[in-house]
Each structure stands twice: as structure tokens, then as C-alpha cells.
Amino acid sequence: MQPRVIRRPLTDFFRELIRGAMRGQRVATSETAEHYLVSLLERFTRPEPGWQKRPLALDFLESFHAADSSKKAGKLRRVGDTSLFLSGLFMEHLERQMVSTDYYISLGRSAYSHLARAPQRGGAGAVFGEMADRFPDLVRVLTEISFEQMFRSDQHVVRAYSRWLRTGSQRDARWLIRRGILPVEPDAPASRH
């Protein structure tokens, strides 16, 4: 398979990916939240040096002690954005780590929730409230992009099944069934025929 060459602005490319994944996952958001997801992906194409080295929990805790409200908001936004990015695009990788995807989902959701309640310029609180409320849906959207566009491999079926176990995504269940695999919870009682 020949690698795709992007010949259009990243904003348009990511908007197309986000909209396609939202249709695939049957997730609808406000236009503002969609735009936020697009800009989040754009920002992570050129991350700050060392962005993944500092534990997110430290920024989360430090945000509550920050005297400057813009510093507090910056820390919470970093936690929310990074948690969403990692849990959506790298779910399978996180599952092999000591800290699970559930941890990142909980931490990111909480960070966005705190941002939503903080005084914001330009009414940004509403988008952070939506990001908090819809965090698991947004993870599914980013996971769809990861699965369909970014990390295709021979382990596609295993990834789909693992993701289905984690999220219960109907899209993943339908994809597995089309390939002759009946998704079943591992601790479900086995039937004998």
C-alpha cells in the first residue's frame, strides 16, 4: 500500500477525518467541539518538546494551586487534551502500560469539567463542558481515526476486538461480525453445542 501524500491544509484533512469518524461512530457534536478536535489534532502534529515526559497528574494537581487563572487553565487544558489524544489514538498502547485507558479518560474528563466551570474568555466554558460530557464518545471518534487511518496492520482484528471489549462500540462489533467473529465478553459463560 502506497503512503498517502497530503496535498491540502491539515485543517481540511483533519476535519474530513473527524467528520468521517463521527459518522462512523454515530456521534454528533456542536460545531465548536468539532473544531476543537480538529485543532487538537493539528497541535499534536507539532507537539512541544518533552510533552509526554511530565506526568499529567502533576499538572492536574498543580492546577488547583496555581494563583494565576491562565496558568491553571493551561495546565487543565494540557491534561484534558493530552488525555483525549492518548486514550483516543493510542488506546491499545495504553492498555499495555501500568496506567489504563480508563485512568486517562477519567483524568481528561475531570480536567475539562474543571475548565468548563472556570471563568473563560469568549464563552469557552461551553465547549469544555461538552468535551467533558462527551469524552468517551470523543475517544471513540479518535479511536476510529486511529483504527481506520493511522495504524493499520495484521493485528487489525485483535485491535478491533480489544477496543470493542473496552468501549462496547457497535461499529467494532459489526466490523468483527462481518469478518466472522462473534464478539463475546471473556467472562460470559461458554455454551456447548
Explained architecture:
The protein is mainly α. It folds into two domains: 132 residues; 33 residues, no CATH class. The chain is built from ten helices and no strands. The model has no long low-confidence stretch (mean pLDDT 81).
SSE topology sketch:
Layout: H1 10-25, H2 31-43, H3 56-63, H4 69-89, H5 91-95, H6 101-117, H7 125-133, H8 135-150, H9 156-167, H10 170-178
Helix pairs in contact: 1-2, 1-8, 3-4, 4-6, 4-8, 6-7, 8-9, 9-10
Protein traits:
mainly alpha, 2 domains, 193 residues
Major sheet summary line: none
The run of helices and strands is HHHHHHHHHH
The domain count comes to 2
Please estimate the helix content. 55-70%
User: Termini separation (Å)?
Assistant: 42 Å
3D shape: globular
Number of strands: 0
Low-confidence stretches: none
Structural class per helix/strand content?
A: mainly alpha
Q: Could you tell me the radius of gyration in angstroms?
A: 18 Å
- Number of separate helices: 10
Strand content: under 5%
Overall mean confidence score, pLDDT: 81
How would you concisely characterize the structure shown here?
The protein has two domains: 10-44 and 55-151; 153-185, no CATH class.
